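Sample intake sheet
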Amino acid sequence: MFSTLKLRAQDNYEIQVYGSETVDKGKTMLELHSNFTLNGSKTITNGELPTNHVEHETIEITHGWTTWFETGFYFFNSVGDAGRTAYVGSHIRPRVAAPQSWNWPVGVSISTEFGFQKSAFSANTSTLEVRPIVDKKWNKLYISVNPTLDKSFKGPDQNRGFIFSPNVKGSYDVTKVVALGLEYYGSTGPFFHYDAFKQQDHQLFAATDLNFDPKWEFNGGVGYGFTQNADKAIIKIIVGRKF
């Protein structure tokens, strides 16, 4: 019997489609990921607390070591009633990118994210995420594709192999400051042995990016889950500052 849990290293703590660029050498990016589940799960499943009306606050600190290598650190936190306020866990995420000097027609990087989380908030308590990233900007149009693979080392999905969790973003610059777009997040089951559609996790977000200062990052959106296992409605905001 397969598990119906969502095995995504991000879950709903860091809802973001990655771009290929790394943080500049010698610079540090501090980000706060704030997500609130308007309509989520309402029962305890495999010891995992429900997500309905819970707020997730994730602190991300990323440092650029070279022009092509960075390391990110995550601190996941949950805020909610009925014992759902807690420090949840931490991840580390090294990432390498194809240097711009290679002059590739698309941006390319790959990140690997590993860490732990408490079983009350994620039944899969030790996970690995391998995230290839390919993106491209055509004038005002931007596309990024993250064909992500997730692996559980401890928990109900530990024997399921790598789970395919694709993320895709498309946005359009409506002004020099404002970009509007769509972001898709999925989890389809073991690679090449996918779950039935109703057991998969699919979410679509209407999102906006504000580019008012190169030192600042802002992304916000409203998402809807349209399969049985997905949280049905989520609001997210990402605010970042480069130092």
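Comment: The first strand starts at residue 28 and ends at 39. Confidence is low (pLDDT under 50) at residues 1-5.
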